[in-house]
Design goal:
The protein is α+β, with helices and mostly antiparallel strands and about 500 residues long. It contains 16 helices and 13 strands. A hairpin with a 2-residue loop joins strand 1 and strand 2. Helix 8 packs antiparallel against helix 9. The N terminus is likely disordered.
Length: about 500
Protein backbone atom coordinates (compact mmCIF):
# COMPACT_ATOMS: atom_id res chain seq x y z
CA UNK A 1 0.00 0.00 0.00
CA UNK A 2 1.28 3.48 -0.87
CA UNK A 3 2.01 5.64 2.20
CA UNK A 4 1.35 9.36 2.48
CA UNK A 5 4.98 10.34 1.79
CA UNK A 6 5.21 8.65 -1.58
CA UNK A 7 4.17 9.93 -4.99
CA UNK A 8 1.67 8.25 -7.28
CA UNK A 9 1.80 9.00 -10.99
CA UNK A 10 -0.88 7.93 -13.44
CA UNK A 11 -1.18 9.03 -17.03
CA UNK A 12 -4.76 9.53 -18.23
CA UNK A 13 -5.66 11.36 -21.46
CA UNK A 14 -2.12 12.78 -21.65
CA UNK A 15 -2.57 14.45 -18.22
CA UNK A 16 -0.56 13.74 -15.07
CA UNK A 17 -2.16 13.38 -11.64
CA UNK A 18 0.29 13.58 -8.69
CA UNK A 19 -0.16 12.71 -5.07
CA UNK A 20 2.56 14.36 -2.98
CA UNK A 21 3.01 14.09 0.81
CA UNK A 22 -0.04 15.64 2.52
CA UNK A 23 -1.55 17.24 -0.61
CA UNK A 24 -3.96 15.15 -2.68
CA UNK A 25 -4.21 16.28 -6.29
CA UNK A 26 -1.52 18.91 -6.73
CA UNK A 27 -1.88 19.70 -10.40
CA UNK A 28 -2.99 18.54 -13.78
CA UNK A 29 -0.29 19.56 -16.22
CA UNK A 30 1.83 18.51 -19.11
CA UNK A 31 4.61 20.91 -18.08
CA UNK A 32 7.53 20.56 -15.67
CA UNK A 33 6.75 18.99 -12.31
CA UNK A 34 7.04 21.20 -9.21
CA UNK A 35 10.04 21.13 -6.92
CA UNK A 36 7.93 19.67 -4.11
CA UNK A 37 7.25 16.55 -6.18
CA UNK A 38 10.93 15.53 -6.38
CA UNK A 39 11.29 12.27 -4.45
CA UNK A 40 13.26 12.31 -1.22
CA UNK A 41 13.20 11.92 2.53
CA UNK A 42 10.12 13.10 4.39
CA UNK A 43 10.58 16.25 6.47
CA UNK A 44 9.47 17.80 9.72
CA UNK A 45 8.80 21.53 10.21
CA UNK A 46 12.06 23.41 10.88
CA UNK A 47 13.98 20.18 11.50
CA UNK A 48 13.81 19.01 7.88
CA UNK A 49 14.73 15.34 7.36
CA UNK A 50 17.10 15.17 10.34
CA UNK A 51 15.02 12.50 12.12
CA UNK A 52 16.09 10.03 9.43
CA UNK A 53 19.68 10.35 10.68
CA UNK A 54 18.94 9.67 14.35
CA UNK A 55 20.31 6.50 15.98
CA UNK A 56 17.85 3.61 16.31
CA UNK A 57 14.74 5.50 15.19
CA UNK A 58 16.12 6.89 11.93
CA UNK A 59 15.56 5.18 8.59
CA UNK A 60 19.21 5.90 7.69
CA UNK A 61 20.90 6.40 11.05
CA UNK A 62 24.13 8.30 11.68
CA UNK A 63 25.94 7.25 8.50
CA UNK A 64 29.73 7.19 8.73
CA UNK A 65 30.37 9.11 5.51
CA UNK A 66 28.81 10.82 2.52
CA UNK A 67 29.22 7.82 0.19
CA UNK A 68 26.99 5.69 2.44
CA UNK A 69 24.34 8.41 2.47
CA UNK A 70 24.49 8.95 -1.30
CA UNK A 71 24.22 5.21 -1.91
CA UNK A 72 21.10 5.00 0.25
CA UNK A 73 19.43 7.99 -1.43
CA UNK A 74 20.27 6.80 -4.94
CA UNK A 75 18.98 3.30 -4.24
CA UNK A 76 15.67 4.44 -2.74
CA UNK A 77 14.85 7.59 -4.73
CA UNK A 78 16.68 7.48 -8.07
CA UNK A 79 18.76 10.05 -9.95
CA UNK A 80 17.10 13.24 -8.66
CA UNK A 81 16.68 13.44 -4.87
CA UNK A 82 15.38 16.30 -2.72
CA UNK A 83 16.45 17.02 0.86
CA UNK A 84 14.60 19.80 2.60
CA UNK A 85 16.79 22.27 4.47
CA UNK A 86 17.81 21.47 8.04
CA UNK A 87 17.54 24.29 10.60
CA UNK A 88 16.80 27.04 8.07
CA UNK A 89 19.51 25.96 5.62
CA UNK A 90 18.68 25.98 1.92
CA UNK A 91 16.85 23.05 0.36
CA UNK A 92 19.10 20.61 -1.49
CA UNK A 93 18.88 18.47 -4.61
CA UNK A 94 21.31 15.65 -5.32
CA UNK A 95 21.77 14.93 -9.02
CA UNK A 96 23.29 11.53 -9.77
CA UNK A 97 23.59 11.96 -13.56
CA UNK A 98 26.72 14.01 -14.34
CA UNK A 99 25.00 15.50 -17.39
CA UNK A 100 22.40 17.03 -15.06
CA UNK A 101 24.67 18.85 -12.64
CA UNK A 102 26.93 19.77 -15.54
CA UNK A 103 23.92 21.49 -17.10
CA UNK A 104 23.14 23.45 -13.92
CA UNK A 105 26.74 24.33 -13.04
CA UNK A 106 27.58 25.64 -16.48
CA UNK A 107 24.40 27.71 -16.56
CA UNK A 108 25.45 29.23 -13.20
CA UNK A 109 29.06 29.89 -14.19
CA UNK A 110 28.58 33.63 -14.81
CA UNK A 111 27.78 34.37 -11.15
CA UNK A 112 28.49 31.11 -9.29
CA UNK A 113 27.32 30.85 -5.69
CA UNK A 114 29.13 28.31 -3.54
CA UNK A 115 27.87 28.91 -0.01
CA UNK A 116 30.31 28.96 2.87
CA UNK A 117 29.50 27.97 6.45
CA UNK A 118 26.70 30.18 7.73
CA UNK A 119 28.50 30.50 11.06
CA UNK A 120 31.64 31.90 9.41
CA UNK A 121 29.56 34.29 7.31
CA UNK A 122 27.79 35.43 10.48
CA UNK A 123 31.15 35.94 12.19
CA UNK A 124 32.53 38.05 9.35
CA UNK A 125 29.39 40.08 8.60
CA UNK A 126 28.06 40.60 12.13
CA UNK A 127 30.40 39.65 14.98
CA UNK A 128 33.60 41.13 13.49
CA UNK A 129 32.05 43.52 11.02
CA UNK A 130 34.57 46.22 11.99
CA UNK A 131 37.46 43.86 11.25
CA UNK A 132 36.36 42.68 7.80
CA UNK A 133 34.57 45.88 6.79
CA UNK A 134 32.66 44.24 3.95
CA UNK A 135 35.71 42.53 2.40
CA UNK A 136 35.73 38.74 2.57
CA UNK A 137 38.13 36.11 1.31
CA UNK A 138 37.55 33.49 -1.37
CA UNK A 139 35.79 31.11 1.01
CA UNK A 140 33.00 33.39 2.23
CA UNK A 141 32.65 36.04 -0.50
CA UNK A 142 29.92 35.72 -3.12
CA UNK A 143 28.92 37.46 -6.35
CA UNK A 144 30.79 40.57 -7.42
CA UNK A 145 32.73 40.77 -4.13
CA UNK A 146 34.13 37.31 -4.75
CA UNK A 147 34.90 38.05 -8.40
CA UNK A 148 36.74 41.27 -7.49
CA UNK A 149 38.83 39.49 -4.86
CA UNK A 150 39.64 36.56 -7.15
CA UNK A 151 40.60 38.92 -9.99
CA UNK A 152 43.20 40.52 -7.75
CA UNK A 153 44.82 37.29 -6.56
CA UNK A 154 44.57 35.19 -9.75
CA UNK A 155 47.65 36.64 -11.53
CA UNK A 156 49.89 35.66 -8.62
CA UNK A 157 48.51 32.20 -7.83
CA UNK A 158 48.08 31.02 -11.41
CA UNK A 159 51.49 31.93 -12.81
CA UNK A 160 53.21 28.86 -14.31
CA UNK A 161 56.53 30.02 -12.81
CA UNK A 162 55.09 29.70 -9.30
CA UNK A 163 56.13 26.06 -9.05
CA UNK A 164 59.77 26.71 -9.96
CA UNK A 165 60.12 29.67 -7.60
CA UNK A 166 59.38 27.72 -4.44
CA UNK A 167 60.64 24.25 -5.38
CA UNK A 168 64.08 24.50 -3.67
CA UNK A 169 62.62 25.76 -0.38
CA UNK A 170 59.87 23.13 -0.40
CA UNK A 171 62.47 20.44 -0.99
CA UNK A 172 64.39 21.63 2.07
CA UNK A 173 61.21 21.52 4.15
CA UNK A 174 60.54 17.99 2.86
CA UNK A 175 64.01 16.94 3.99
CA UNK A 176 63.26 18.32 7.45
CA UNK A 177 60.02 16.36 7.54
CA UNK A 178 61.70 13.11 6.53
CA UNK A 179 64.44 13.61 9.10
CA UNK A 180 61.78 14.13 11.77
CA UNK A 181 59.82 11.11 10.56
CA UNK A 182 62.87 8.88 10.83
CA UNK A 183 63.35 10.00 14.43
CA UNK A 184 59.76 9.12 15.22
CA UNK A 185 59.43 5.92 13.17
CA UNK A 186 60.03 3.60 16.13
CA UNK A 187 57.50 5.41 18.33
CA UNK A 188 54.64 3.36 16.94
CA UNK A 189 52.01 4.30 19.52
CA UNK A 190 52.68 8.00 19.04
CA UNK A 191 52.48 7.81 15.23
CA UNK A 192 49.31 5.72 15.34
CA UNK A 193 47.52 8.62 17.01
CA UNK A 194 49.48 11.60 15.75
CA UNK A 195 50.76 10.85 12.25
CA UNK A 196 48.23 13.22 10.69
CA UNK A 197 49.33 15.96 13.08
CA UNK A 198 52.97 15.51 12.04
CA UNK A 199 52.03 15.73 8.35
CA UNK A 200 49.97 18.84 9.12
CA UNK A 201 53.06 20.46 10.67
CA UNK A 202 54.85 19.88 7.36
CA UNK A 203 51.95 21.28 5.31
CA UNK A 204 51.73 24.38 7.53
CA UNK A 205 55.48 24.94 7.29
CA UNK A 206 55.25 24.66 3.50
CA UNK A 207 52.25 26.94 2.95
CA UNK A 208 53.61 29.51 5.44
CA UNK A 209 56.85 29.75 3.50
CA UNK A 210 55.01 30.22 0.21
CA UNK A 211 52.51 32.66 1.65
CA UNK A 212 54.69 34.62 4.07
CA UNK A 213 58.25 33.90 2.97
CA UNK A 214 58.92 32.66 6.48
CA UNK A 215 59.67 29.32 8.12
CA UNK A 216 57.72 28.82 11.33
CA UNK A 217 59.87 26.05 12.79
CA UNK A 218 57.00 23.55 12.95
CA UNK A 219 59.31 20.59 12.37
CA UNK A 220 62.00 21.54 14.88
CA UNK A 221 62.00 20.69 18.56
CA UNK A 222 64.45 23.47 19.38
CA UNK A 223 62.06 26.21 18.18
CA UNK A 224 59.10 27.58 20.09
CA UNK A 225 56.29 26.66 17.70
CA UNK A 226 53.40 27.18 20.08
CA UNK A 227 51.68 29.56 17.66
CA UNK A 228 51.90 26.94 14.91
CA UNK A 229 50.26 24.41 17.24
CA UNK A 230 47.48 26.94 17.86
CA UNK A 231 46.86 27.37 14.12
CA UNK A 232 46.68 23.62 13.57
CA UNK A 233 44.25 23.16 16.45
CA UNK A 234 42.10 26.11 15.36
CA UNK A 235 41.79 24.78 11.81
CA UNK A 236 40.47 21.45 13.09
CA UNK A 237 38.26 22.94 15.80
CA UNK A 238 36.60 25.28 13.29
CA UNK A 239 35.58 22.33 11.08
CA UNK A 240 34.31 20.29 14.03
CA UNK A 241 32.36 23.22 15.48
CA UNK A 242 30.87 24.13 12.08
CA UNK A 243 29.68 20.54 11.75
CA UNK A 244 27.99 20.66 15.17
CA UNK A 245 26.40 24.05 14.54
CA UNK A 246 25.18 23.58 10.98
CA UNK A 247 24.49 19.86 10.58
CA UNK A 248 23.42 18.84 14.08
CA UNK A 249 20.47 20.08 16.16
CA UNK A 250 21.25 23.69 17.11
CA UNK A 251 19.36 26.96 17.56
CA UNK A 252 22.39 29.25 17.19
CA UNK A 253 20.54 31.36 14.59
CA UNK A 254 18.09 32.46 17.27
CA UNK A 255 20.34 32.95 20.28
CA UNK A 256 24.01 32.59 21.13
CA UNK A 257 24.60 28.99 22.16
CA UNK A 258 27.70 27.78 24.06
CA UNK A 259 28.94 26.09 20.87
CA UNK A 260 28.56 29.32 18.89
CA UNK A 261 30.48 31.20 21.58
CA UNK A 262 33.25 28.61 21.30
CA UNK A 263 33.24 29.00 17.51
CA UNK A 264 33.60 32.79 17.78
CA UNK A 265 36.41 32.41 20.32
CA UNK A 266 38.20 29.92 18.03
CA UNK A 267 37.85 32.16 14.97
CA UNK A 268 39.20 35.08 17.01
CA UNK A 269 42.18 33.02 18.13
CA UNK A 270 42.90 31.83 14.60
CA UNK A 271 42.78 35.39 13.27
CA UNK A 272 44.97 36.78 16.06
CA UNK A 273 47.58 34.04 15.59
CA UNK A 274 47.77 34.31 11.81
CA UNK A 275 47.74 38.12 12.08
CA UNK A 276 50.85 38.00 14.28
CA UNK A 277 52.65 35.94 11.64
CA UNK A 278 51.48 38.30 8.90
CA UNK A 279 52.68 41.29 10.91
CA UNK A 280 56.14 39.70 11.27
CA UNK A 281 56.25 38.99 7.53
CA UNK A 282 55.30 42.60 6.70
CA UNK A 283 57.95 43.93 9.07
CA UNK A 284 60.58 41.77 7.40
CA UNK A 285 59.51 43.07 3.98
CA UNK A 286 59.67 46.71 5.04
CA UNK A 287 63.07 46.29 6.66
CA UNK A 288 64.78 44.83 3.61
CA UNK A 289 63.19 47.22 1.10
CA UNK A 290 61.44 46.67 -2.21
CA UNK A 291 64.27 46.47 -4.73
CA UNK A 292 64.52 42.66 -4.83
CA UNK A 293 63.98 40.07 -7.58
CA UNK A 294 60.44 38.80 -8.05
CA UNK A 295 61.52 35.22 -7.35
CA UNK A 296 62.55 36.19 -3.82
CA UNK A 297 59.14 37.62 -2.94
CA UNK A 298 56.50 35.73 -0.99
CA UNK A 299 52.87 35.73 -2.07
CA UNK A 300 51.93 38.26 0.61
CA UNK A 301 54.68 40.58 -0.60
CA UNK A 302 53.35 40.44 -4.14
CA UNK A 303 49.79 41.02 -2.93
CA UNK A 304 50.78 43.93 -0.70
CA UNK A 305 51.82 45.78 -3.82
CA UNK A 306 48.28 45.37 -5.15
CA UNK A 307 45.98 45.71 -2.12
CA UNK A 308 46.99 45.47 1.55
CA UNK A 309 43.58 44.29 2.81
CA UNK A 310 43.42 41.58 0.15
CA UNK A 311 46.98 40.51 1.03
CA UNK A 312 46.15 40.09 4.72
CA UNK A 313 42.89 38.23 4.09
CA UNK A 314 44.49 35.91 1.53
CA UNK A 315 47.43 35.10 3.81
CA UNK A 316 45.03 34.36 6.68
CA UNK A 317 42.96 32.10 4.43
CA UNK A 318 46.05 30.19 3.30
CA UNK A 319 47.00 29.53 6.92
CA UNK A 320 43.47 28.30 7.65
CA UNK A 321 42.37 26.42 4.54
CA UNK A 322 45.72 25.34 3.14
CA UNK A 323 46.96 22.98 5.84
CA UNK A 324 44.45 20.21 6.63
CA UNK A 325 43.48 19.84 2.98
CA UNK A 326 47.07 19.14 1.90
CA UNK A 327 47.67 16.96 4.95
CA UNK A 328 44.62 14.77 4.23
CA UNK A 329 45.56 14.35 0.57
CA UNK A 330 49.16 13.45 1.46
CA UNK A 331 48.20 10.89 4.10
CA UNK A 332 45.70 9.17 1.80
CA UNK A 333 48.27 9.07 -1.02
CA UNK A 334 50.79 7.48 1.35
CA UNK A 335 48.15 4.97 2.39
CA UNK A 336 47.43 4.01 -1.22
CA UNK A 337 51.13 3.64 -2.00
CA UNK A 338 51.74 1.67 1.20
CA UNK A 339 48.79 -0.63 0.44
CA UNK A 340 49.98 -1.18 -3.14
CA UNK A 341 53.73 -1.93 -2.87
CA UNK A 342 54.07 -2.77 -6.57
CA UNK A 343 52.74 0.66 -7.49
CA UNK A 344 55.05 2.26 -4.95
CA UNK A 345 58.07 0.48 -6.39
CA UNK A 346 57.08 1.39 -9.95
CA UNK A 347 56.72 5.01 -8.88
CA UNK A 348 60.12 4.95 -7.18
CA UNK A 349 61.78 3.65 -10.35
CA UNK A 350 59.98 6.10 -12.62
CA UNK A 351 60.84 9.07 -10.43
CA UNK A 352 64.51 8.38 -11.08
CA UNK A 353 64.02 8.42 -14.85
CA UNK A 354 60.99 10.54 -15.80
CA UNK A 355 61.05 14.31 -16.11
CA UNK A 356 58.43 15.58 -15.64
CA UNK A 357 57.14 12.72 -13.56
CA UNK A 358 53.79 11.81 -15.10
CA UNK A 359 53.35 8.68 -13.02
CA UNK A 360 53.55 10.58 -9.73
CA UNK A 361 50.85 12.95 -10.93
CA UNK A 362 48.74 9.98 -12.00
CA UNK A 363 49.14 8.52 -8.50
CA UNK A 364 47.95 11.80 -6.96
CA UNK A 365 44.93 11.97 -9.28
CA UNK A 366 43.98 8.38 -8.55
CA UNK A 367 44.31 8.86 -4.82
CA UNK A 368 42.12 11.96 -4.95
CA UNK A 369 39.53 10.06 -6.97
CA UNK A 370 39.28 7.53 -4.16
CA UNK A 371 39.80 9.94 -1.25
CA UNK A 372 38.78 13.52 -2.12
CA UNK A 373 38.93 16.05 0.70
CA UNK A 374 35.38 17.12 -0.21
CA UNK A 375 32.97 14.31 -1.12
CA UNK A 376 30.75 16.57 -3.23
CA UNK A 377 30.54 19.88 -5.05
CA UNK A 378 27.63 22.27 -4.93
CA UNK A 379 26.18 25.43 -6.41
CA UNK A 380 23.31 27.50 -5.05
CA UNK A 381 21.00 28.37 -7.91
CA UNK A 382 20.56 32.02 -8.84
CA UNK A 383 17.72 31.27 -11.26
CA UNK A 384 15.23 28.57 -12.12
CA UNK A 385 16.34 25.35 -13.86
CA UNK A 386 14.45 22.43 -15.41
CA UNK A 387 16.21 19.12 -14.77
CA UNK A 388 14.72 15.75 -15.76
CA UNK A 389 11.30 17.38 -15.96
CA UNK A 390 11.48 18.92 -12.48
CA UNK A 391 11.59 22.60 -11.59
CA UNK A 392 14.59 23.55 -9.45
CA UNK A 393 13.93 27.08 -8.24
CA UNK A 394 16.31 29.85 -7.26
CA UNK A 395 18.06 29.42 -3.91
CA UNK A 396 18.46 25.62 -3.95
CA UNK A 397 21.80 23.89 -3.31
CA UNK A 398 22.46 21.56 -6.25
CA UNK A 399 24.83 18.82 -5.09
CA UNK A 400 27.10 16.73 -7.30
CA UNK A 401 27.93 13.52 -5.34
CA UNK A 402 31.37 13.22 -6.91
CA UNK A 403 32.99 10.74 -4.54
CA UNK A 404 30.05 8.33 -4.78
CA UNK A 405 30.00 8.53 -8.59
CA UNK A 406 33.79 8.10 -8.78
CA UNK A 407 33.44 4.74 -7.07
CA UNK A 408 30.85 3.32 -9.46
CA UNK A 409 31.74 0.60 -11.94
CA UNK A 410 29.72 2.30 -14.70
CA UNK A 411 32.12 5.24 -14.63
CA UNK A 412 35.47 3.66 -13.74
CA UNK A 413 36.27 -0.04 -14.27
CA UNK A 414 37.47 -1.66 -11.02
CA UNK A 415 36.55 1.56 -9.22
CA UNK A 416 37.70 0.59 -5.72
CA UNK A 417 41.20 -0.32 -6.88
CA UNK A 418 44.13 2.10 -6.84
CA UNK A 419 45.18 2.08 -10.51
CA UNK A 420 47.21 5.18 -11.50
CA UNK A 421 47.57 3.78 -15.02
CA UNK A 422 43.97 4.72 -15.79
CA UNK A 423 45.19 8.35 -16.07
CA UNK A 424 47.94 7.43 -18.56
CA UNK A 425 46.70 4.61 -20.80
CA UNK A 426 45.65 5.00 -24.43
CA UNK A 427 42.08 6.03 -25.25
CA UNK A 428 41.36 2.55 -26.57
CA UNK A 429 42.08 0.97 -23.17
CA UNK A 430 38.93 0.16 -21.15
CA UNK A 431 40.62 1.70 -18.09
CA UNK A 432 41.07 5.08 -19.79
CA UNK A 433 39.82 7.81 -17.42
CA UNK A 434 38.35 9.80 -20.31
CA UNK A 435 35.59 7.23 -20.74
CA UNK A 436 33.97 8.77 -17.65
CA UNK A 437 32.16 12.09 -17.83
CA UNK A 438 34.66 14.88 -17.03
CA UNK A 439 32.43 16.27 -14.25
CA UNK A 440 32.46 13.06 -12.20
CA UNK A 441 35.86 13.51 -10.55
CA UNK A 442 36.42 17.13 -9.52
CA UNK A 443 38.56 17.12 -6.32
CA UNK A 444 39.54 20.79 -6.76
CA UNK A 445 36.05 22.00 -7.62
CA UNK A 446 34.69 23.24 -10.91
CA UNK A 447 35.01 26.29 -13.14
CA UNK A 448 35.91 29.76 -11.99
CA UNK A 449 35.35 28.82 -8.33
CA UNK A 450 37.77 25.91 -8.44
CA UNK A 451 40.52 25.86 -5.81
CA UNK A 452 42.97 28.72 -6.35
CA UNK A 453 45.63 26.87 -4.38
CA UNK A 454 45.67 23.80 -6.62
CA UNK A 455 49.15 24.38 -8.05
CA UNK A 456 50.61 25.10 -4.63
CA UNK A 457 49.00 21.98 -3.11
CA UNK A 458 50.18 19.73 -5.94
CA UNK A 459 53.67 21.23 -5.77
CA UNK A 460 53.93 20.59 -2.02
CA UNK A 461 52.72 16.99 -2.33
CA UNK A 462 54.87 16.13 -5.35
CA UNK A 463 57.99 17.56 -3.72
CA UNK A 464 57.48 15.67 -0.48
CA UNK A 465 56.57 12.30 -2.04
CA UNK A 466 59.47 12.49 -4.49
CA UNK A 467 61.95 13.17 -1.70
CA UNK A 468 60.42 10.60 0.69
CA UNK A 469 60.38 7.65 -1.72
CA UNK A 470 63.99 8.23 -2.68
CA UNK A 471 64.98 7.40 0.89
CA UNK A 472 62.09 5.53 2.52
CA UNK A 473 59.86 2.52 1.89
CA UNK A 474 56.34 2.91 3.26
CA UNK A 475 54.07 0.04 4.32
CA UNK A 476 50.71 -0.32 6.07
CA UNK A 477 50.26 -3.04 8.68
CA UNK A 478 46.66 -2.85 9.78
CA UNK A 479 42.99 -2.89 8.72
CA UNK A 480 41.83 -0.68 5.83
CA UNK A 481 41.72 3.04 6.46
CA UNK A 482 38.29 4.49 7.17
CA UNK A 483 36.89 7.91 6.31
CA UNK A 484 34.33 9.85 8.36
CA UNK A 485 32.51 12.97 7.22
CA UNK A 486 32.58 16.19 9.24
CA UNK A 487 31.86 18.79 6.57
CA UNK A 488 35.11 17.64 4.94
CA UNK A 489 36.33 14.05 4.82
CA UNK A 490 38.51 13.08 7.77
CA UNK A 491 40.52 9.96 8.49
CA UNK A 492 39.69 7.70 11.37
CA UNK A 493 42.57 6.85 13.68
CA UNK A 494 44.72 4.85 14.34
CA UNK A 495 47.31 4.88 11.55
CA UNK A 496 49.34 1.76 10.81
CA UNK A 497 52.18 3.15 8.72
CA UNK A 498 55.68 1.71 8.88
CA UNK A 499 58.72 3.54 7.49
CA UNK A 500 62.02 1.90 6.58
CA UNK A 501 65.21 3.34 5.14
CA UNK A 502 65.94 1.92 1.70
Amino acid sequence: MLNKYQSLSAATNNCTFRYVKRTKYLSISNGPKPFESIPGLSSLPFLGPIHHFMPIIGSIGPKANFVDLAQHLHKHFGNVVKLDGIFARANMVLLFNPEDFDQVYKAEEATPLRPSFDTITYYQEEVRKDLYNGLFGLTAAQGEKWRDFRTKVNPIFLKPKLVKLYAPALDDISKEMIERLMKLKDKEEYLRCNFDKEVTKWSLESVAYIGLGKKLGCLRDDVDNQKAEVLIKCARDIIDLAYKLEFSPSVWRYFETPTLKKMIKTLDLQWETSASYIKEAKQKIYERGYDIPDEDKSIIEKLLAIDEKVAILMANEMLLAGIDTVSFTTVTLLYNLASNPKVQEKLRIKMLSDKPNQYLRACIKESMRLYPILPANLRRTTKEHIVRGYVIPKGVDVIAPNEFLSKMEKHYPRPMEFIPERWLVDKMDPLYYGNAHPMITQPFGFGVRSCIGRRIAEMEIETFIRRLLQEVRVSWNGPPMKVVLKVMNQLQKPYFFKFEHI
